[in-house]
Amino acid sequence: MKTTVEVPDSLYRRVKARAAERGLSVKTFMLDALQEKLAEQNARPKETTGWRAVFGAGRAEDIAAIQQIIESEFSRVDPEGWQ
Fold it and tell me: Residues near 16 by Cβ (< 8 Å), separated by ≥ 6?
């Protein structure tokens, strides 16, 4: 697939020089760089916030304490109120 990407002149000059140093075309250099960036991002754990940051990764004691809180709160729910 072909696409057009605008690259600032100063960045393009750096890319062209680095590609030449490695004996690569600009196209090959850029494709390699894109693939490396994507692989790097896939290898890194996703950064999340809130409860998602520890979901499934919390300590057993913490999970047990949270479960007790949940059970305590649900025991207060009036089944009649759900209808």
Answer: 26
